[in-house]
Amino acid sequence: MADAETPNAAAAAGGGGGGELLVWPWTGILATATTTNTSADAVNTLSVHAEHHFAGVPTTALHETAAGDDGDGHHHHHFLLLHFGKSWSGLRHAISLRARFAGAGRREWLRRRRRPIAGVVHGWPAGEDDLRAGDGGAVVGRFLREAGGEARSAEGVEREEMRVAAKLGAIAGELERRVEFLEAKCEEIAGAAKKTAAYSDWLNGELQEEDLEISSLRLPSREYKCDDAQTLHENHKQEMEAIYAKLHQLEKQLKQRQALEFTVQQLNKKIQAGESLTKEDHEHIYNIMVCLRTIVDEEQEMLVDSCAELMKRLRTNCDELQEYRQELMKGFENTTITGHTIIGIKRMGELDERPFHLACKRKHRDNDSEGKAARLITYWQKEMKKPSWHPFTTIQVDGEDKEVVDENDPKLRQLCIDYGDSVCNAVKSAMAELNEYNSRGRCAKNELWNFREGRKATTREVVKYISDQLKFNKQ
C-alpha cells in the first residue's frame, strides 16, 4: 500500500536525516530573484530546471515583491513549488534537491535574495521554516499552509502508516471472517428461497386439487334420487378410497396423522361393512377438508413469512457488507495511486484530465495549452452536472433494457470533431459512471477499484490484498 522503500533509505538517498521536519505532502522549492517584474522569463527559467530534474511532477508558480538592501527599489522573488506527493519516492526526490543545488540552497537564497544575480536558481526541500516563513518567502508559507501542508518527519510518517496498517490488519481479519460468513449465508438464503418458491408452487397445486375434491363431495341432490343404489354405493366407495389416500398423504406432510387418520378409518369401516354414507358423513368429510385447507393456508403463510424474513436478512447482510466496504475505503483514502497500484480508490464519474492536456498540446501548441486545457476541463465538469443534458439512449441487452451513452449526441460529436476520440471517450466514460453510481446528483463517488483488471474490486479481493500487503511488510 506504500512504496517498498523505507524512510531511512529514502532519506539516505538524498543525504537527509529521518528526524528532520519537512513539509508533507513532500514539496520542493525552486527560487530565483529579479530586479524587474519579468515573471514570464523567471517562471520559464524555473520550469526548465524542474522539467530537467523532475519531468512530469506537478508544479505551482508563486511571486512576491521585496525591498532591496540599499533602498534601490524592489526586487521580485519567483518560486516554483514541486509537488512530490506522499510516497517515499516523493520524499527521496525532495531531499535530492540538496545534492542537485549544492551551494545554491535555502541558506544561500536567504543571503542573496535582496541582491539577486540574474539567472541563478536556488533549490531545496520545503521544511518547517518554509511552512512558517514570513519575510522573503511569505507567499510560499501561506500557500503551503492553505494547501494543508504539515511539518513531519519521515519517522513520524512511517509510524502513522504502521498504525494505519495495524488498524487495517485488524479490520481485514474481521472482514475476512464476516465475508465468509455472509457468503455462506447468502448461499443458504438463495437455496432456501429457491426451495420456498418450489414449495409454494406445490402448495398452490395441492390447494387446487383439494378444491376439486371438496366440490366433488358436495353431491348434487339428484344423485340421491338415483334409481340404481348399488351404482351410487360403488361410486361413494371409489370416492372415499381416493379421499383416504389423499388425506393419508397430506396428514404425513402436515403432521396431522392421528386426528385425520382416525376419522378416515372410521369412514372406511362403514364402506367395508357395506353401509351407505349419510349426509352427516359427507359433511364430516367436507369439514375435514376445510380444516386441511386452513392448515395448508397457514403453512403457506408461514413459508411466505419465512421467505420474507430470509430476504430481510439478505438485505441486512448486504447493508453490512456495504458498511464494511465504506470502512475499507477510509483505509485507502490516503493511498497514492501509481502505475503499479492494484487495489485502490477510484473516483467514479470524475473526468480523466490527461486526454484533455494532450489534445490541447497538439491543437494549441505553445499558445497557453495548459490554460486552455484547464478551462476545457472546467467547462465539461459543469456541463456533465446539468440535469438538462441527458446524452443517453436505451438498448436491449440479453432481453433487458439498458441505458448507454448516445454516440450520436450533438455535443459529444462536436467534442470529438474539435478535440478527438480520446477526449470524447473520457467524457463518455465519466458520464456512464455518473449514470450508474449517482444518476440524480451527478457527483463523483468513491469506489474500491481493481486497477489491474479495470473493474470494481470485490470485498474478498480487497481483504486479500490488505492481508498480502501486511504479510509483505512483516517480511
TrEMBL record:
Residues 346-474 form the Factor of DNA methylation 1-5/IDN2 domain. One of its GO terms (biological process) is gene silencing by siRNA-directed DNA methylation. Pfam families: XH (PF03469), XS (PF03468). Residues 165-192, 233-270 form a coiled coil. InterPro entries: FDM1-5/IDN2, FDM1-5/IDN2_XH, XS_domain, XS_domain_sf. This is Factor of DNA methylation 1-5/IDN2 domain-containing protein. It comes from Leersia perrieri. Residues 20-132 form the XS domain. The keyword Coiled coil applies. Keywords: Coiled coil. It comes from the Eukaryota.
